[in-house]
Structures are given as structure tokens and as C-alpha cells.
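dumping this here before i forget
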Amino acid sequence: MYSVRVEADFAAAHFLSRYQGKCEKLHGHNYRVRLWARGEDLDEGGMVFDFALLKSALRKVCSSLDHTNLNDNQVFAGNPSAERIARHIFEEAGKLLPKEAAALLSAVEVYETPASMARYEP
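structure:
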């Protein structure tokens, strides 16, 4: 099995409405996102997935979240946890890729800080 990964960043604000602690107040993060793809077979060029295609999809999704208040995005149901952000990015990136390429997506990691990360794997 082969795995490839690309990274992108975005900055956004949010608050956790069903949380008791400092994160229930509006604050921001410089998010780091890692999108993974995996497959057993390599294409004619010896790749499991074209990095440029993967990066393009991830950057488009991250760009749509950049410099926003994530609580304003209905997909997060008013509570944009790192887990919900990861799933959203995974699903939106998949929509931007050809069907056969989207099937190779395997996971998304969303880092709120270098030490705090949520991972989504369907």
C-alpha cells in the first residue's frame, strides 16, 4: 500500500458553543491541514496520486475557510470542532476530484496547534 500526503494552511476564528472553558469564547487558530490518499497501484508515471491535483483540491477547500468565522458556516451546525472541520474538508476535497481519484482519499488531519489535532477517516 502506498500513501501520499499534502498540506495546506488557513486562519479562522471560531468558538465552541457546547463547551465549558476558554474555547467557548471567540478565538482563532492558524490551522494546518494534511490530506492523505492511498492506493495499492501506481499509475504509468509511478505515482499513486498526482501531488498537484491533491494540493489543488486541498487549497481550494482551505481557501473557502480562510479568514472566516467558522461558526457562520452552516455545515458546522454552530459548533465547529476540529473533528467537524476535518470531515468537511475531506468531503469537499472529494467533490473537487475526479471520482476515481476521490476514492483514493483516506484521511484528513486538522491541527489547531502543533500539539492538538483531529483526524477524520471515513
